[in-house]
Amino acid sequence: MSAHSDTLAARLEALPVPVALELPGGKKLGAAENAAAVIFRIRERKAALALASGQIGDVGMAIVEGQVAFEGKMRELMAAAEALLPASPIQGKPGAWQRLLGWLRSRAAHTLAGDARNIQFHYDVSDDFYALWLDPRRVYSCAYYRTPDMPLAQAQEAKLDHICRKLRLRPGARFLDIGAGWGGLLLWAAEHYGVDATGITLSRNQHAYVQQRIAALGLQGRVRMELRDYRELPSTQPFDAVASVGMFEHVGRRNMTAYFHTVRRLLRPGGLLLNHGITAGGVENSELAGGMGEFIDRYIFPGGELMHVGAVLRHMALGGLEMVDTENLRPHYARTLWAWSDALEAQLPKAREVLAVTHGAERAEKILRAYRLYLAGCALGFERGWVALHQMLATHPDGRPETGSLRGAQSEYPFTRDYMYAPQNV
């Protein structure tokens, strides 16, 4: 262990924040604990080796499992973690073994039953837990900071309105929200744009919550929430507009063309799709290196797969949709995630309490450790461009050479994007 201790000592000296390290057996390295921004107490030799080699995801898993304890603020912890990485986590092509494992994982995960299990694993953790750190509407996706001084709740409303404007929603339009979460977009579109709205989810908790919100707001006549997979929706009466927000990351690479083909089937000719979701920062990688992808798959989003925006647009075209506008909101998501992380850090005792009600004290502590690392780690990833967030607006071309005065449009998308930035409803 002495050689690894020397390696660790040298790496600790080079970190941008002072880090104190206690190894199994009590040996201490790095800064003095009273001067350290971050303290690691390592209880297993394997975790020390992972730290020395920069396998940050493995260190994260060791923290979740109680093999490593840490003290310090999440921003300082992430600064240390980034500096420990031996290389960019999005560089290089996956090897044959990694590609095979990815293919097997995708094949096993993305059945109707498998996707339902994966969604419920994440979104049904505890409604009360999510309510501690999300905004009051429980919008669990990238906010839109239309002005620099916006608080999170207002930025989330700006995002909801941004989507509705992009889709040109209007009273009476039939609107579908695929993966509707806790109903933020669904209810905003109904209340502010007068649409006839249908939302679907695979989360039992979200379904029950939105049903209650619909009744409380008196929207039973034109808003409905269904516990249903997108592949099971009938296309007998296609929708005028479709939104998919934070959902297509769960679809899987091998299903992506079929996903967009299904959306095309559900969307009337000339209608608009807004596909909002996380994309890979690298062209070749489907997950982050350094063990970070494995961490996310094990503790947060089992079965999740990311693709570069270029690959997503190719599948979109193969599915018969025409992309008419794409916007990268990557820095907006970094800010959103830090807001979530800060909110959770401010509520740690309450978070333990509400998680323990459903999961018991020991399991609750593991979940809390995982989410603390997940939120702050993802904030870092979006800041550094390891992952991105794209809103892709697409049409189902209607085949007509003229749509009103817009010759050749074949959809309701205007010739310019000025309409997206008219005076806001927020």
Describe the protein's architecture and organization.
The protein is α/β, with parallel strands linked by helices. The chain has 2 domains: 2-84, Nonspecific Lipid-transfer Protein, Chain A, CATH 3.30.1050; 101-421, Vaccinia Virus protein VP39 (Rossmann fold, 3-Layer(aba) Sandwich). 45% of the residues lie in helices and 17% in strands. The protein contains 16 helices and 13 strands. It has helices at residues 2-13, 45-53, 56-64, 74-84, 96-109, 112-123, 127-133, 152-166, 184-193, 204-216, 256-266, 292-299, 309-318, 330-345, 348-359, 361-384, and strands spanning 19-22, 28-30, 38-42, 68-72, 174-178, 196-201, 223-227, 239-245, 267-280, 322-328, 387-395, 402-403, 406-407. Strands 7-6-5-8-9-11-10 form a 7-stranded mixed β-sheet, sandwiched between helices. It has a 4-stranded mixed β-sheet with strand order 2-1-3-4, with helices on one face. It has a two-stranded antiparallel sheet with strand order 12-13. Helix 11 (256-266) packs across helix 13 (309-318). The longest helix has 24 residues, at 361-384. It is elongated. It starts with a helix and ends in a 19-residue tail after the last strand. The mean pLDDT is 90.
Which tags fit this structure?
426 residues; 7-stranded mixed beta sheet; 45% helix; elongated; 13 strands; 16 helices; alpha/beta
Write the layout of secondary structure elements.
Elements: H1 2-13, E1 19-22, E2 28-30, E3 38-42, H2 45-53, H3 56-64, E4 68-72, H4 74-84, H5 96-109, H6 112-123, H7 127-133, H8 152-166, E5 174-178, H9 184-193, E6 196-201, H10 204-216, E7 223-227, E8 239-245, H11 256-266, E9 267-280, H12 292-299, H13 309-318, E10 322-328, H14 330-345, H15 348-359, H16 361-384, E11 387-395, E12 402-403, E13 406-407
Parallel strand pairs: 1-3, 5-6, 5-8, 6-7, 8-9
Antiparallel strand pairs: 1-2, 3-4, 9-11, 10-11, 12-13
